[in-house]
Amino acid sequence: MSALTFTLKEQQPAQRVDMSPLVCQKLQGLDVDAISAIILQTGKSRLRVDDLFYITGKNTQEIIVAGSINKLDFIGKELDGGSISVQGDAGAYLGMQMKSGSITVSGDTGIYAACEMKNGLIQIDGDAGDFLGGALPGNKQGMKGGTVLVKGNVGQRAGDHMRRGQILIEGSAGDYCGSRMLAGTIAVMGSTGRYLGYAMRRGTLLLWNQPQLSATFNDCGSHTLAFLPILFASFKSFDSRFADSGAAFNRVQRYGGDMAETGRGEVLVRI
């Protein structure tokens, strides 16, 4: 059975589109006619799915969004099994509160990708916006599990209020990376911006390059840590530079902080 494919029509939407109804568990058991009649919110208007997309295929557990643009928000919201492949860019809130399954994006994503994600895998081949894996405004817990892999760069406050899971960034991260972290792991191969780990309580920031750290982080010396080979072995299954990067971390420089909070977080920098 071929994948259920939504191909954006030539007449692109003028306003942002809420794509949250088009997830695997909500479409399960529906035929093409029923899917075509689903209503999507776009700005102040409400449009049928077939007003915006050509629809082909039948497998609702394997969804493809072809010709996607950055006005398509909430792709994969609360996804609970199955897979979604985005061919192009995605808008804001990609994979918001995702429970299981996988999402892949061939282009860039907007703000709040993987926000409050619970489980599953999100792979972004381009760049990600601010608050990757963060918490919604007013909430205190961000990403709670799963894995996010970004092959490009990410914006500010990646992992803000992060609770569990791992964020793997092949590019660089903006300011306040790992801010207010409660637990989890963020790995960054590129550079990091200012205020790294601001107010983090626990968790691990794994870095390839020396960061600018605030005075509230203490230098704990160089270490050979037994858990790092196990961590890098878990990256072997990913289509990523992380799969072959374990040899670079024989020893690390460890910094503890943020001492303005509990001071139980750590920043590990490759030596």
What is the rounded Rg?
19 Å
User: Percent range for helical residues?
Assistant: under 10%
The ordered string of helix (H) and strand (E) elements is: EEHHEEHEEEEEEEEEEEHEE
Instruction: Work out the strand percent.
Output: 25-35%
Uncertain regions: pLDDT < 50 for 5+ in a row? none
* Average of the residue pLDDT scores: 96
User: What's the shape?
Assistant: elongated
Identify the strand order in the major beta sheet. 5-1-6-8-9-10-11-12-13-14-17-16-15
End-to-end separation in angstroms reads: 50 Å
Largest sheet: 13 strands, mixed
Class by helix and strand content? mainly beta
How many strand elements?
17
Instruction: Count helical runs.
Output: 4
Protein name: Formylmethanofuran dehydrogenase subunit C
InterPro entries: Formylmethanofuran_DH_suC, Glu_synth_asu_C, Glu_synth_asu_C_sf
Domain Glutamate synthase alpha subunit C-terminal: 74-210
Organism: Methylomonas fluvii
Brief characterization of the structure:
This protein has helices at residues 24-27, 32-36, 49-52, 227-233; strands spanning 3-8, 17-18, 39-42, 45-48, 53-56, 59-68, 72-73, 80-88, 100-105, 121-124, 144-150, 164-169, 185-188, 204-207, 218-223, 252-257, 265-270. With 271 residues, it is mostly beta strands.
How is this fold's topology laid out?
Elements: E1 3-8, E2 17-18, H1 24-27, H2 32-36, E3 39-42, E4 45-48, H3 49-52, E5 53-56, E6 59-68, E7 72-73, E8 80-88, E9 100-105, E10 121-124, E11 144-150, E12 164-169, E13 185-188, E14 204-207, E15 218-223, H4 227-233, E16 252-257, E17 265-270
Parallel strand pairs: 1-6, 2-7, 6-8, 8-9, 9-10, 10-11, 11-12, 12-13, 13-14, 14-17
Antiparallel strand pairs: 1-5, 3-4, 15-16, 16-17
Organism: Methylomonas fluvii
Protein name: Formylmethanofuran dehydrogenase subunit C
Pfam family, one: GXGXG
